[in-house]
UniProtKB/TrEMBL annotation:
Xref: InterPro entries: Ribosomal_uS2, Ribosomal_uS2_bac/mit/plastid, Ribosomal_uS2_CS, Ribosomal_uS2_flav_dom_sf
Organism: Segatella salivae DSM 15606
Record region (Disordered): 227-272
Gene Ontology cellular component list: cytosolic small ribosomal subunit
Family: Belongs to the universal ribosomal protein uS2 family.
The protein, known as: Small ribosomal subunit protein uS2
GO MF annotation: an example: structural constituent of ribosome
Pfam family, one: Ribosomal_S2
Swiss-Prot/TrEMBL keywords: Ribonucleoprotein, Ribosomal protein
HAMAP family: Ribosomal_uS2_B
Basic and acidic residues composition bias: residue spans: 227-238
Length: 272
């Protein structure tokens, strides 16, 4: 069963592309027609591509890996923050720091710096500092939180990127391509789908369009996480059963040994 349908996407305005003069010819396979100088996206293809991307994301989530969501444009940043947080995934919605993937160890150092500031503030180390020094540290902490707070739990490179507007986030796309990290993206008619592994042709400017697509893919991710949780519970239950069976076997052997001991003693006495 499809995670979205034609009517849902139509109502959300997913079919509106850009002006014909702004189009990228590589998007031709996903364009249905042109109306009043604007390209109209083929929503039947969008439905199929959402399902394809959702299944791949579900598999990644089920394997326990992280998916990094990226959207720094005004109309999408709050939606991405909300949806990514709902499935406990990291996201970037303020500014893509160059080298966030290709220079990941440096980014981790900045995150650790933020954690250290918190630790020193809590244990009273900064209590002897002047107001000016404390203000500088507080501002530095706020800046780090704004840019890196949402990826504080990302201790290793993500297994995939989900990008809203691949044209605006071209640096993130390049870094992911360089490292061989698969890229999932909402691709409008003015963008190049060439470097995107899972293309979702749709309007990347309308809030409703972005929210509808993210709801579908995050629903799939949530399913993957639930299945992983269920599998872990089953594994734990199996391990406990195996442990219990081993314990029963051990007790049985001990009981048999204890039962056999008096008989063995009697035989020994008779032999004497």
């Amino acid at each position: 069963m499809s995670r979205t349908n034609f009517d849902q996407l139509l109502q959300a305005g997913c079919h509106f592309g850009h002006l014909k003069r702004k189009w990228n010819p590589a998007m031709a396979p996903y364009i249905f027609m042109e109306r009043n100088g604007i390209h109209i996206i083929d929503l039947n293809k969008t439905v199929a591509k959402i399902d394809e991307a959702a299944e791949a994301l579900k598999a990644i989530a089920k394997s326990g890996k992280k998916i990094l969501f990226v959207a720094t444009k005004k109309q999408a940043k709050d939606i991405v923050a909300d949806k990514a947080a709902s499935v406990n995934m990291p996201y970037v919605n303020e500014r893509w720091a160059g080298g966030m993937l290709t220079n990941f160890p440096t980014i981790r150092k900045a995150v650790k710096k933020m954690t250290n500031i918190d630790k020193l503030m809590n244990d009273g180390t900064f209590s002897n500092l002047s107001k000016r020094e404390l203000l500088q540290i507080t501002r530095q902490r706020a800046k780090l939180e704004k840019n890196l707070g949402s990826i504080a739990d990302l201790t290793r490179l993500p297994s995939a990127l989900f990008i809203v507007d691949v044209m605006k986030e071209h640096i993130a796309v390049k870094e992911a391509n360089r490292l061989g990290i698969p890229v999932f993206g909402i691709v409008d008619t003015n963008s190049d789908p060439k470097n995107i592994d899972f293309v979702i042709p749709a309007n990347d400017d309308a809030k409703d369009s972005v929210e509808t697509i993210l709801t579908a893919v995050c629903g799939a991710i949530a399913e993957g996480l639930e299945e992983r949780k269920a599998e872990k519970a089953d594994e734990k239950a199996s391990a406990e059963q195996a442990e219990e069976a081993a314990e029963v076997k051990k007790r049985t052997r001990k009981a048999r040994k204890e039962e056999a001991a008096p008989a063995a003693e009697a035989e020994a006495e008779k032999a004497e």
